[in-house]
Amino acid sequence: MVYHGCLSVLTLKYAEVILPLSLANRYTYRIPPDLEPRIFIGSCVIVQFGVKRFYTAIVWAIHTKDESKNTYEIKEIYALLDPIPVLRQLQLRFWEWLSFYYCCRLGDVYNAAVPSGLKLESETAVMYNENFEADSMLRPAEQSVLEAFSGQTKLTISELEKKTGLRNVMPVISSLMALGAVEVCEELKHGFKPKTQTYIRLSIAFHAEEQLSAAFNSLKRAHKQMALLSFFLEEIQMQETQMAQEISKKELLKRSGCSATVLDELLKRGILESYEKEVERLQPMEVVAHVLNCLSEEQQSALRQIQDVFRIKDVCLLHGITSSGKTEIYIHLIDEILQKGKQVLYLLPEIALTTQITKRLSYFFGDRMLVYHSRFSDSERVEIWNRILRGNDPLLVVGVRSSLFLPFGNIGLIIVDEEHDHSYKQQDPAPRYHARNAAIVLAGMHGAKTLLGSATPSIDSYYNALAGKYGLVDLSVRYGEVRVPEILTVDIRELKRKKRMNNALFSPLMIEKIDEALKEGEQAILFQNRRGFAPVLECNNCGWVPHCVNCDVSLTYHKQRHELTCHYCGYRVRVPKSCPTCGEPEAELRSIGFGTEKVEEEIKALFPAARVGRLDFDTAHTRTAFERILSDFEQGNTDILIGTQMVSKGLDFANVSVVGILNADSLMNIPDFRAHERAFQLLVQVSGRSGRRNKRGTVVLQTFSSEHPIIRLAVRSDYKEMARLQLEERKLFRYPPYFRIIEVVLRSRKEDVVHQISFIYADKLRNHLNERILGPVVPPIARIQAWYIRKIILKIEITVAIAPVRTLLDRVSEEMEHLSNFRQVAVHYDVDPV
Ligand code: ADP
Ligand code: ZN
Ligand code: ZN
Fold this sequence. Notes:
Bound molecules: adenosine-5'-diphosphate, zinc ion
Structural class: alpha/beta
Number of helices: 27
């Protein structure tokens, strides 16, 4: 017996933790015996890392092995942040997969995944408890820490260290914490203050029948108070849960119609009491669950096919043309999964997550739905996080790619809407993950299904469907009477040759169609995938073109702001008064090409009576601005909406009869193997905005290359043929989906260094992977934000597992470390770049 006791004291436990730093490793800390029963995998703990810094770490594993082999000192976990784990084990597995597949560090995934409100940053604040009275003599060090507060209640650990002059103040704080003299500051701990609301309840002294009637007696001459008390008691009785016995002050006053002074009197008498209670910050959605719409025959059949696919496959691709009613099918599926008691994640590209779609979904799912958005405040994110963490109740989460990181307990279905959208891929910083692919993996971990939906699926997903890896369901008719639009191609080259382009931007046909629409009281959308007034400004005399000081690009001319802007780094300057090279006056600077701002100017000149709106990065810089421009158009306050690809994203307008595409060529002349796929997708998506219930829509597509296969396919909306041709080409030139691309991206402030290093790096990789290595290449924009860039491209057969590739990459990177100037180069991998 005695031995047993001793042994259990001796078995120390260790926690392997990950830190919110760009580090690949996990670190081991000793678990203090008193914390042992409360620390689990997924717990948030505070640890010391480096000399003086403290971080919130996440417990990854717990074991009893002392891995230091006494070669270094293992530090102790300093404190436990939350009594319950902040992460579920499944999430940690998901993180592990992300860091493995996307070749990034676990710490990067941690940083991206967890809202900062849940992370304690290095400067832990300690709070002095003013009510503390020592039972026994304090040690000198403890004494001096408490003295350091001298009137202040809150100090950071580093401040305490400085003030006391103690070299290691942590153990002292730790013992003071045990005594109750100090505590880690609650508010900083969560970076998040819970929102509270005043609640009213019956004081405990009046719970008994007798006391309560005495109270009523005492109110005989205070009619209003008596009325309010009666009202309160009735309300309480009507509450479903007998437990609650409370009502918010606001509600009580509102519903009873009493004034606050009447309530104050009752509080003063001590009959009722008020207190602060933490409430959810989330605005509860309207609690209405409307009856679902009946599906059309085609929708019904598509739904059945999806359900059939899910019986044998985990992923289904729904290829449904624009306005075929995909969303309606999603709604039916979501309802089915919620009824099974499971959760649904509905992913949308950032920009498509508008009030339009959330309203439409909340109409059916009401308070069973949560929205998760990148523009939410951190507090809101923490709140959503906790809500999902604390319960496994059926819930629909509508969100952008980062909602994959929420602590779901019970996913039954993930829907990836507009699955072709390349904004699903995170570019910077790491983890550079693709949310569609990650969603499939996450769903797999939950034993759930994934539905990919698009009118123009990505070639990758479509290939997987053709190969039988995914199920494929086609929906090729629009819902209701709406017909697919007629697409008219206008050959600008031809018009210019015949001198029939009277206007620089608009062909006669486009002007005619817009004019017709306006006369009919209908709306038009004009699409130009470039913002600003003109992409280039040039001196008429000497040919000088202003360039960004940080990047290798010309500056875009913004006329209204009278500025030149870099669209890569945000650099801005005023338009010069004269050409800096030859001194010609400003008037001699002419613009080349055109962006949305110029389109707006021209259209206003052509149709002075029309109300014109513009939707691009410049006008829709905030969410409210974005929503306002859209709702103005939706409600008919705007006649013509001009925009970049923002106008193409899954929006549904009832009164648009004309869509104008000003320059389709700019989409195709991009040096990227996906350029044609993208151009097709954009053209078809933009065209899809046209068409009304009772009238066929029109699309006017202006191009210099009307014979280009992609243009011809887009005009026919022939997705299948486009996919067939693209796949042929991809196979021939060893591109995805037949080959997996991994880019090694090297950046340096010094061009010669990055140049030299990239050649050595490529050679080393080539030694192992031979012709699978391309480059180093100089990217089209070779310098961004003063960093010179080189890329080495790996093309690996899709059938090759990623693990050995990863090992090899790690090995080569280690070899590179030996080169002295390698430290001047920042390297990252981009797996499946888009
Ligand atoms: P998609 O998502 O495929 O572009 P939507 O689901 O947005 O298509 O449907 C296009 C339009 O048709 C929407 O206005 C939608 O409300 C309407 N609609 C689609 N299916 C139905 C249905 N079963 N009942 C009523 N309206 C529907
Ligand atoms: Zn000049
Ligand atoms: Zn720049």
